[in-house]
Design a protein that fits this description.
With about 675 residues, the protein is α+β, with helices and mostly antiparallel strands. It folds into four domains: about 1-105, no CATH class; about 105-115 and about 400-460, conserved putative lor/sdh protein from methanococcus maripaludis s2 fold; about 135-260, OB fold (Dihydrolipoamide Acetyltransferase, E2P) (Beta Barrel); about 500-675, no CATH class. Helices cover about 30% and strands about 25% of the residues. The strands form eight sheets. Strands 4, 6, 25, 26, 27, 28 and 29 form a seven-stranded antiparallel sheet that branches. α1 runs antiparallel to α3. The radius of gyration is 36 Å and the shape is elongated.
Length: about 675
C-alpha cells in the first residue's frame, strides 16, 4: 500500500510541476509578446535580450537581477523584462501579439445598457394579520359562569355563542326596560306630550342595553318574553381561530377585561428581514416568492405592503411586510420561511417592473393596480402613480437602463475596482482603468463611473494581463502606484506567504476579537459544519450537494444570535455576515460548478477571517489549505476539517493540488493566537 501511495504522490507532483512550467512559460510569452521563431533566443530575440537590463522570474516577479540566470527561490530560468511600449504610452498599457492573446485566452465583452435582475434573498416568519385580529372583552362587570369555547385553537364562526355572563348591572338594565315598556302601555291614553316622554324613556333604555353588549335580537326577545334573564350570552363578532383564552369559568370580570382573542387566518402577514445593502432593490408592491419547510419545493407568492422606515441598529436590517393569501389554511403563523425577490434597478436608482411601469396603485392594498387614476376597490383611497413609489416610468426606458459589465470583468481589491479595456483601433492593446462599481446583480455589476456604453472590457485573462504589468513594475490591481512588483506569495518557496501575512496582522492586534461569548462560537460551529459539506460537494464534483449545503449554511447564519456580541464584535460580524450571505446567494445562483467554485473562494476567504477573529467553536483545529494554481494562478484558500488536500477548485481533475498553510483553533485568543506552520 505504501508504494502505491508513493507512486500517486510522485504522479501528483509531476502534474503540478508540468502546470507550473506551462504557466511560467505562458506568462513569459505574455511579456515577450507571444511566440518566437526558431531563430530567436528562448527569452526573446537576440536584439531584445541584448537590450534587457533587468531579468525576473515568471513565478516570483519580486526577483530582479541585472542578467540571466536561475531564480534563487524556485530554480526556474529568469526571463528578460522587456518594455516595447513607447515612453509616452499609458503606464497601465500592455501590448500583446495575436499568439500571446490566444495563449492567454483573452476574451472581451462590451459595456452595455440593459436591465439585469438581482435576486434578493430574505428570511423571516409568518405572523397574524394585525388588521384581522379581534379581542372579545366584557362590556359590563360580571361573572363568567360558562365558557362554551374552553381551549385555544378552536375555530368559531360569526354569531357563535361564546360565554354565559351573570351581571347584576345587566339585570338592572333589563328591569328598567320592562318597567319603561309597562309605563308606556299605561300611558297609552295620556296626552301626546306625556306619551312622547314615555317613548323617549323606552328608547333610551334600549340604547343602554345595546351599549352594554346586547344585540337587537336579544333586546327584542327580552321585550317579547317580558321577563329578565339572569345570564346574557356573548356571541362571536367575527369568524376565526381562538388564539388566546384570557379567562376561565368563574372569573369575575370588569368592563374591558379581555376574554378571548380571535384571528382570521385566511390572510396572513409575512415578516421579512432585508439587509441594509439590499434596500435599493426593495419597493412597495413588489411580488415576493417564498417557500416553507413544511411544503418543500412548493412556492407561495405575496406582495410587499410595507417597508419599515426605521433600520434595526442591532441587526442592520429593515422589516419588510408581505400580504399572503391563506384560504387553504396550509400556512401557519410562526412558520420559518425563505423568500426571494427579483428586481431590476435603473441608472437613476429606480426599480423597473414591467407589470407596474406607468400604472396606478393603491397605497394600502398593492394588489389593486389600474391603468389610470381612480380609487381603491377595497378601502376607497385614491390611487397613486407607481413612479411616486420608486418605480421607473415608461418614458426613456433605453436611457434609464444602467451600464453593466460581466461580473468576471472587474478586479476588486479593497475599495478599488480595476478593469482592462481593449483598444478597438489597436488590436492587442489593453489599458487598465479604475472604475466605480454599483451593486452586483447576479452575474453582472452595475457601473457608476469610469466606463461608457460600447467600451470593451476583458472578461477572461484579466489576471494574466495584471500579472504581466506587475512584472513590468507598472500600475496594476496589486500595485496601484507601479513602484515595484508585488509579492505573489507561493507556499514552500521562502517568500512571505499567507501565514506570515496573517501573523503580521495579528502582531498589530487587528485579528482576534476579545470577549466573544462561548454561545456565539457554538452557533458559529454549525455554520462551519455546513461550509465543510459545501467543500465536500465541490471537491467531489457534486453541485447538488454543494447547493443543498449552501441552503443549510444560510439557515445557520440566520440562527446566529448577534445581539449577544459587544459593539466592536457586532460591527465586525455584520460585515462578515453581509459577505457570507452574498457569496452563498451567488453559489446558489451559479449556473454551473465552475461559477459556484468562484463564489466559494469568496465564502472561504470570509470564513477564514471569521475563524481568526471570532474563533470556530469546533472541537478540533480546522486547517487552511492553499492552491497556487486556482483561478488562472491567482491562487485561493479554503478550509478543511481533516488532513490531506481535497481541492474544491479543481475537484477530481487535481484533487490533491495544494498545501496546508496553517491551523485555526476554536478560541484563538485563549490559545495564544492562530497556530501557524
Amino acid at each position: 500500500m505504501s508504494s502505491g501511495k508513493g507512486l500517486g504522490l510522485r504522479i501528483d507532483r509531476r502534474i503540478l510541476l508540468a502546470f507550473v512550467i506551462a504557466a511560467a512559460f505562458a506568462l513569459g510569452m505574455l511579456i515577450r509578446g507571444g511566440g518566437s521563431s526558431g531563430s530567436e533566443h528562448e527569452g526573446g530575440t537576440g536584439e531584445e535580450v541584448a537590450q534587457a537590463s533587468v531579468w525576473t522570474c515568471s513565478m516570483h516577479p519580486q526577483i530582479r537581477q541585472p542578467g540571466p540566470g536561475d531564480c534563487p527561490l524556485c530554480g526556474m530560468d529568469l526571463i528578460p523584462v522587456l518594455d516595447s511600449s513607447d515612453e509616452d504610452s499609458d503606464p497601465r498599457e500592455l501590448k500583446l501579439s495575436e499568439n500571446a492573446r490566444k495563449l492567454a485566452d483573452i476574451q472581451t465583452a462590451p459595456v452595455e445598457r440593459r436591465f439585469v435582475d438581482a435576486e434578493i434573498r430574505m428570511v423571516g416568519k409568518i405572523d397574524y394579520d394585525e388588521t384581522r385580529v379581534k379581542r372579545i372583552s366584557a362590556w359590563v362587570p360580571g361573572r363568567l359562569d360558562r365558557l362554551f369555547v374552553d381551549y385555544t385553537g378552536t375555530r368559531v364562526s360569526e354569531g357563535d355563542h361564546l360565554v354565559h355572563l351573570y351581571s347584576p348591572e345587566l339585570i338592572s338594565a333589563q328591569e328598567e326596560l320592562l318597567q319603561a315598556i309597562e309605563a308606556e302601555n299605561q300611558l297609552a291614553d295620556a296626552g301626546p306630550t306625556t306619551l312622547r316622554g314615555a317613548y323617549a324613556t323606552t328608547k333610551a333604555v334600549r340604547e343602554k342595553l345595546r351599549l352594554l353588549g346586547l344585540s337587537p335580537e336579544q333586546i327584542a326577545e327580552l321585550e317579547s318574553r317580558g321577563e329578565i334573564s339572569e345570564h346574557i350570552t356573548i356571541f362571536a363578532p367575527t369568524s376565526g381561530i381562538v388564539i388566546h383564552k384570557n379567562a376561565v369559568e368563574g372569573n369575575y370580570v370588569q368592563t374591558g377585561t379581555p376574554i378571548y382573542t380571535i384571528a382570521e387566518l385566511d390572510q396572513l402577514w409575512l415578516k421579512l428581514d432585508a439587509f441594509e445593502h439590499d434596500l435599493p432593490w426593495v419597493r412597495y408592491g413588489q411580488e415576493v416568492e417564498f417557500e416553507t419547510v413544511a411544503w418543500p419545493g412548493e412556492f407561495f407568492k405575496g406582495k410587499i405592503t410595507f417597508v419599515d422606515p426605521v433600520l434595526d441598529e442591532k441587526t442592520r436590517t429593515v422589516k419588510v411586510r408581505v400580504n399572503v393569501s391563506n384560504e387553504d389554511g396550509r400556512l401557519k403563523p410562526g412558520m420559518f420561511i425563505k423568500a426571494t425577490l427579483h428586481a431590476s434597478l435603473s441608472a437613476e436608482g429606480k426599480v423597473y417592473d414591467k407589470g407596474l411601469a406607468g400604472k396606478w396603485i393603491s397605497p394600502m392594498h398593492p394588489e389593486i393596480v389600474k391603468d389610470g387614476p381612480g380609487t381603491c376597490d377595497v378601502c376607497g383611497m385614491d390611487l397613486v402613480p407607481t413612479e411616486s413609489l420608486g418605480y421607473l416610468d415608461l418614458e426613456n426606458l433605453d436611457m434609464s437602463a444602467p451600464l453593466v459589465i460581466p461580473a468576471s470583468a472587474p478586479l476588486i481589491t479593497g475599495k478599488r475596482a480595476l478593469v482592462y479595456m481593449a483598444d478597438p483601433e489597436n488590436a492587442g492593446r489593453f489599458v487598465g482603468r479604475e472604475i466605480v462599481l454599483g451593486p452586483r446583480a447576479g452575474s453582472w455589476y452595475l457601473v457608476y463611473e469610469g466606463l461608457e456604453e460600447g467600451d470593451r472590457v476583458v472578461v477572461n485573462g484579466n489576471f494574466k494581463i495584471d500579472s504581466a504589468l506587475q512584472i513590468l513594475a507598472r500600475p496594476s490591481m496589486m500595485n496601484p502606484d507601479g513602484d515595484g512588483p508585488a509579492a505573489t506569495g507561493h507556499a514552500g518557496h521562502g517568500e512571505e506567504s499567507h501565514s506570515s501575512q496573517q501573523a503580521s496582522a495579528e502582531s498589530e492586534g487587528e485579528v482576534y476579537l476579545e470577549g466573544i461569548p462561548e454561545a456565539f462560537r457554538s452557533q458559529l460551529s454549525k455554520v462551519f459544519e455546513s461550509y465543510f459539506t459545501v467543500h465536500e460537494g465541490l471537491s467531489g464534483d457534486d453541485l447538488t450537494i454543494a447547493r443543498s449545503a449552501t441552503e443549510s449554511l444560510l439557515d445557520d447564519l440566520a440562527a446566529v444570535d448577534m445581539t449577544i456580541l459587544g459593539h466592536e464584535a457586532h460591527q465586525a460580524w455584520m460585515e462578515s455576515l453581509k459577505l457570507l450571505r452574498s457569496s452563498a446567494d451567488a453559489v446558489l445562483a451559479a449556473k454551473d460548478i465552475d461559477a459556484s467554485r468562484a463564489e466559494f473562494e469568496s465564502m472561504s476567504t470570509t470564513l477564514i477571517n471569521v475563524a481568526e477573529r471570532f474563533g470556530t467553536g469546533m472541537d478540533q483545529p480546522i486547517l487552511v489549505y492553499h492552491c497556487p494554481m486556482a483561478f488562472d494562478w491567482k491562487g485561493a484558500d479554503w478550509l478543511q476539517k481533516t488532513e490531506g488536500t481535497e481541492n474544491p477548485y479543481f475537484g477530481a481533475a487535481m484533487f490533491k493540488c495544494g498545501t496546508k498553510e496553517r491551523e485555526l483553533v476554536s478560541m484563538p485568543g485563549a490559545a495564544g493566537g492562530t497556530v501557524h506552520e
